[in-house]
Amino acid sequence: MSGNLVVIGTQWGDEGKGKIVDWLTDQFAAVVRFQGGHNAGHTLVIQGEKTVLHLIPSGILRPQVRCLIGNGVVLSLSALVEELETLAQAGIATAGRLQVSGACNLILPYHIALDQARERALGNLAIGTTGRGIGPCYEDKAARRGIRLYELLDADHFSQRVRAVMAYHNAILQQVFGAAEPLACQPVIDAALAYRERIKPLIADVPAELHALSQAGQRILFEGAQGALLDIDHGTYPYVTSSNTLAGAAASGSGVGPRALHYVLGIVKAYTTRVGSGPFPTELDDAVGQQLGERGHEFGATTGRKRRCGWLDIVALRRSLQLNSVSGLCVTKLDVLDGLETLKLCVAYRYQGQELTTPPIDGRQFAACEPVYEELPGWADNTAGITCYDDLPAAAKSYLARIAALCDTPLAVISTGPDRTETMVLDAQLDHMQVADR
Ligand code: GDP
Ligand code: IMO
Ligand code: MG
Hints:
Helices cover 30% and strands 20% of the residues. By secondary structure, it is α/β, with parallel strands linked by helices.
């Protein structure tokens, strides 16, 4: 394949984006994050060794690949530096390879306090956020009071800005949420300024860097975080994250135009998971759900929370594929279904006696939808670690083919295990160098 690739989640996150980005990255000069923040948790496994990335793009384990964090990302300085240190301890050199847009909005401690206060106040209706200040930081950005990374470079200006913004937020924390004391400004300012020298060399004009790469004929991979059903506009609002998670956001969140996005790879877990609250029509509260969770190790890579599990929801998936103009499907965690006697695909919803084939936009209607299933036979053999499509059990191939047919989208990649190499590429456009150990 020539050109640039966008990798996005088509469900509620944790589809295996990180693994696939790492696998494909050897064909690209650079990997760019364009939205979200350290609410993401992307797991990479290379020869049994696990790395979890939250902010740093999943190309970082490939020494020749550049990693960029675009303007659409909300940036916690402490999370970034901590992640850099963890990588350094693991012997991964990042110097000169990571660049961060000066236009990133900073997540500061008052965002975290607000995120947590809001969740507490919502009680039963809490969204189940990661509690990392993501939502309040995007609120500040949209309200045009957010503090951007480049503002950190002028200490006096930065201090004034933090004081002004904190006056506003302290009023909310105290008057709306009943905080006993205001948050003190000076420690917030001092802690942020302490990162200045470490961060300064990383600050870059990301749009200019991406343009230069393109001019030089180099290829760029855009790495999505979260998933389409968590999108602030098109997801299961209000049980969503606060950014646009769709492929289109790769352009605005990094600083390229839409014509720079050539192929969109939609990552689909072979079943469905969700962390946090919100509607989930195919959720299983039974032994099968339990089994999926255990076999799939479905615990959040960021918060360690148990993920809710259920069957694959084709109705929601089809909407995601349209929203993202997905070129090809990447089905992950096929191996987790090994040994299940029967598999179910949700092909329609039942809502107030009617059968729907598209998900309702109204969240309360969506929450009232019941799944209509099509049953398929499972397989007794193992698919774990298989890297040749022809070696898959016939029933596994039928399951995959049925998904592709229902979605009217070709299968591009299949993943049969967490390790980098437990992957097969079916779309020749994506695979110009099929070497087993890449
Ligand atoms: P991301 O947020 O989309 O990058 O996904 P996460 O890393 O949060 O969650 C995916 C989990 O599934 C991680 O623990 C991966 O190591 C693991 N994983 C990815 N692909 C496969 C696969 O094909 N099979 C199995 N068994 N595990 C996988
Ligand atoms: P990756 O990139 C799964 C969920 C949270 C919560 C909602 C809002 O690893 O797929 P937030 O902290 O963003 O305001 O929380 O979104 N959420 C994710 N769920 N994977 C993620 O990222 C997520 N990032 C946020 O659980 O329901
Ligand atoms: Mg994750």
